[in-house]
Design a protein that fits this description.
The structure is a single chain. This protein is mainly beta and about 200 residues long. The protein contains three helices and ten strands, in the order βαββββββαββαβ.
């Protein structure tokens, strides 16, 4: 477990109520509901003044939601970086979990095993793991992906479109999410021809 020492000060409930979701704090670290004997970088899920009853909800950088009562001496509390404070152990966010959807042209079981072996060799056998595998034949085609407002005005001529990605495989589209208030439009790929006259 990689941790770093950070100088921080424990905050009171009144001090936490003055914070917003953009303020970085430290709360008790958890992983899959299992408390760890250190702290994790976190942010409040909404402005502190909007919480009632002295209980606050923070989301750690690892995606865990933690309910805290800062003034409860039996709990780890809420901490903020402060040079005049004391040293605490903070869990580092040194790893990244990748959920990969791989397109392997002409993919066979042998080519997938080679890919897996190469990844284990590059990152370490204890790091790369296969959790689930869904092998499906997919057409070798490409599409153009656009975003447009979810509630476009009638008669609009598509001027509000935003080209999100090019040359994308259809199987990847389902792993993407549109921006808030926008929807995806998928069209057959068209090569862009630049007919600008050159001298």
């Amino acid at each position: 477990m990689n941790t770093e020492k950070v100088t921080a000060r424990r905050l009171t409930a009144e001090e936490v109520s003055d914070l917003g979701p953009q303020d970085r704090i430290f709360v008790s670290a958890e992983a899959e509901g299992l408390p760890l004997d250190c702290y994790a970088p976190a942010f409040l899920t909404k402005p502190g003044k909007n919480f009632e009853g002295g209980s606050f909800v923070a989301r750690t950088v690892f995606g865990e939601e933690i309910h805290v009562l800062p003034d409860n001496a039996e709990e780890a509390g809420v901490w903020a970086a402060d040079k005049g404070g004391e040293e605490i152990e903070v869990l580092q966010s040194a790893g990244v979990l990748l959920n990969l959807a791989l397109f392997v042209p002409g993919g066979s079981e042998g080519s997938l095993d080679s890919l897996y072996s190469a990844a284990r060799e590059a990152f370490g056998a204890g790091v790369v793991q296969r959790w689930s595998e869904d092998v499906a034949a997919v057409p070798d085609v490409k599409v153009d992906l656009y975003e447009e407002p979810a509630r476009a005005r009638k008669g609009a001529n598509g001027q509000n479109r935003d080209r999100r990605a090019l040359d994308i495989y259809p199987t990847r589209v389902r792993f993407l999410e549109p921006s808030e208030g926008w929807k995806f439009v998928v069209e057959p790929h068209k090569e862009i021809v630049d007919d600008t006259p050159t001298i």
